Amino acid sequence: MVHPRLFLLLTFCFCFFACHPGQKSKFKPLDLDSYGIPMIIMAPDSAEVIKKDYSIMRDITIRKGNNYYVQIFESTATNPAVEVKKNQLESVKQDKYFKELIQEDENGFIFQKQLDSAIIDYDFRYIKILNDREIIFQTGMIGTFSLEDVKLMYEGVKVNITNNE
Q: Per-domain residue ranges for the chain?
């Protein structure tokens, strides 16, 4: 009999690669447990992971080349995921570069930014509450990303597997 966690991981990998067949050789499961977050996401093979611990928050960045840069902020949860997402969306919409909401689901969203008349950038937020921890995924703060890049990052963190399942 297959262990339930392994079954979930295999199912996740199948679904991810079925939706993004061209990424099969680029993305693989990345276990964040050794960085203090008990979950697995999909990320490029050999991506660089950097962890910074602050007294009230943990900041983990996962980067590979110019097209993949995910930043994860983890802190103590004070609100349910729906409320955190609502606050994140309100904050993003108040930014002077916000142009439009591209995609939205229960725990996250993808949006477009217009940095100037020639530069369009995309970003996302995805929120996960895990026990007493609030985890916010987004694109890294440096660089500009295409919609395709952001959709791949978003899907890679959106359907994650917690290590305690």
A: 4-162
